[in-house]
Amino acid sequence: MKSRDAKALTIASAIITYAERSLRDLVRDHSGSGIKSLDSGEFDIRIQQRELLESIVALLPSEKAVFPINFLCCLLRIAIFLRAANSCKNELEKRISVILDHVTVDDLLVLSFTYDGERLFDLESIRKIISGFVEKEKSVAVFNGGDFKDVFHCYA
């Protein structure tokens, strides 16, 4: 699609559809169930799903803001669940931090999953997302000749 000069939004739509169909159970199931008792067949499926997710993330268009925030948060949750490569998680965290001003609490809660009846959060991912957003806002404030404190108070 890229070689035929398809628009980033068209590519994004195709990737979203493909991810939702290919990772159907993980996209729809926000519980994280099955993580503690994997038999060898399920373990192989998880490896295939992790490789597929990492491939999908590698195909994301370079335009950072073409994907809905809830889709990116869902992919990050899946990456955490499948223990994807750090490069995959980092890419998703960067993309989320770029459009963090559009995030809702529910979007961030997608990054949690249930394990033994408890809610677990990947606080490191949340920290990276917020840090990336703050750095972006600092650079915007500097670029605009403003004071970062003024920008920060707008978001506080």
UniProtKB/TrEMBL annotation:
Keywords annotated in UniProt: Ubl conjugation pathway
Superkingdom field: Eukaryota
Residue span(s) of domain NPH3: 1-156
Keyword Zinc: no
Similarity remark: Belongs to the NPH3 family.
Protein name as annotated: Root phototropism protein 2
The species this protein was found in: Abeliophyllum distichum
